[in-house]
Amino acid sequence: MASLIALVKGLVSKALKIITPEPLQLSNGKIVRPAISIMWIVIPVLTFITVWSVSMTRFRLDMLLRRGGQFFVIVARMIPPNYAYFDNIVTPLVATILMSLVGTIIGAALALPFAYASSELNQSKIGKFAVRAFFSIARTLPVLVLAVLSMIVFGAGAFAGTVAIAIFTFTIMVKMFFELIDTADMGPFEAILSSGANRIQAFWTAIMPQLWGQYYSLTLYNLEMNIRNAAILGYVGAGGIGIVLSERLAWRVYPDVGLILLVLMVTVLVIESVSREIRRRLL
Amino acid sequence: MSVIKPKIKDALRKQPNEWGTKLFVLAIILAIFYVAKDFIPYNGVTEQGLLIARNIFNALTNPNQTILFDFVTRDGVPVLIMETAAIAFLGTIFGALISIPFAFLSARNIVPKWIASIGVAIIVVIRTFPAVVYALMFIRVTGPGAFTGVLTLSVASIGMLAKLFAEIIEDLDPGIIEALDASGCNTIQKIQYGILPQLMSNFASTTIYRFEINVKYATILGMVGAGGIGAPLIFAISAYRWSDAGALLIGLVIFVLIIEMISTRIRKKLATGE
After folding, report:
1. Model ipTM?
2. Cα–Cα separations (whole angstroms), residue B215 to A11, B99, B151, B210
3. CB-based contact (8 Å) between B140 and chain A?
C-alpha cells in the first residue's frame, strides 16, 4: 500500500514538473521560467470533446471494422461503369452545368450593389451594419435548404435549383467582394469625388477598374463550387444530375452510378481547370 | 473647362480598348441564357410567393418554443444542434488524422516526384465528389444516422485538408533543420524542434477552417439521412410546419454564426501569434 502511494506521488510530481517546468538560472544570474505549453490545455479539451462526440453520434468502431469494407465493395461494383447509360445522362448533365452557370451569373451580378452597400464606402453606419448583418444570417442557410424553400415557390425542377444557386452565390459573393472593395486604393476614388462626381459614379470609375479582374475571378471560383452544389440539388428534386444519381443509387444499379460519378468527375475537373486557367490570366 | 488639355486627351486615347472583350463576354452570357431556357423551364409560381414569404417571416418571429428550448429529448433543437456539432467535430478530427499521412505522401519535398503525383491524383479524385454523394454511399454501408455523417465528413474532409497540408509541408524551411543538424540534434529532436513548430499552427488553422465548413455540411447531411438537424428541418419545411421550421432555422443560424465567430478568432490568433 505504501509503495502504491509513493508511486502515485512520484507520477504526480513528474506530471507537475512537465506542466510547470523548473526555472532555469542563466550565467548572468537571471532566472527564466520556460513557458507552459498550451498543449496541456488543448489536448485534454480535445480529448473530452472527442469522447463526448463519440457518445453523441453513437460512433461504433466495431461496426466500422465489420462493415467498412462494404464501402469498397460498392465502389468495386461500379467498375467497369455502364457506358451504354451515357445517353440517359446527357440531358441532366447539361442541365446541371447550365444551372450552375446561370445561377452563378445572376448571383454575382446581384452581389455587386450589395457589396458596395456593405463596404466602407457606404457612409451610413446603420445601413452598412444592417446589410452586413442580413447577409451574415443569409449566408448560414445551406444550399439544400434554399432549394427546398424555392421549390415551394417554383415547384420541383431545375428552375428552383437555379434560384437556390443564385441566392447562395449572391450571399457569399457579397461578403467576398465587399472585403475586396475595402482593400482597394481610395486615392482615385477621392480624386474623382473632388472633381464633382457622386459616390456611385466615383465607385464605378475609380474602384471597379481596380477590381474587375478579381470580381471575375471570384465569380469563376463560385462557379467551381456551384457545379458540385448543382450536382446534389437533384436529391431534393431541384433538377440536374442528382436526380438520376440518387435514383440509380436507390435501385443499387452500381455500374450506372459508376458512369454518373465518372462523368461528374470529368465535368468538375474540366470546368475547374478551364476556370483556373482563366483566373490565372486575370490576376 | 471648355478646352480639354492635350495631355488628358492623350491619356484617354492610350487607355486599352476593351470593347471587343466586353462584347465577347456579353455574347457568351446571352448564349448561356438562350440555351438554358430549354433546360431550365420556368413553370410559373406554384403558390403566391408573397404568402410563402409571409409564412417564413411569421415562422422566424413565432418559432415553436417548446422544441426551441427543449434541452432533454432528441427532438429538441439544442440536442439536435449538439448532435450536428458532434458529427462535424468527429468528422474533422478523423479527416485531419487521415489527411496527415496522405499529405506527407504527396509533398514533393518529402517523397520522390512520382509518388507525390500519385498522392495528388488520389486527393483530386476524393475532392471531386460532393459530400452528399459520399453520404449516399455510406448509408448503404452503415445505415442512416449520425455515425454515417461522421464517416462521410471524415472522407469528404480529406480532399481539402490533405491538399492544404501538403502545401504547408512543401513550404517547410529546410534551413532550420540544417541548423539543428549542425548543432548535433538527433532525428527525434529535429522533428520536435525543427518540423513540428513550423507545421502545427498552420495545420491547426486549416483544420479549424475545415471544421467551420463541416459544420455547414453537417446541417445538410441530415437531409439524406446522415444525422443532425437537417432531416427535421426538411421535414418541417416540406410539411409546412412553419413554427417548427422557424425554431430549427433559428437554432441553425445562431449555431453557425457562433462557430464562424470562434473559428475566425482562433485562426486570427494562430496567424498573428497572439
Report:
1. 0.83
2. 39, 18, 14, 9
3. yes
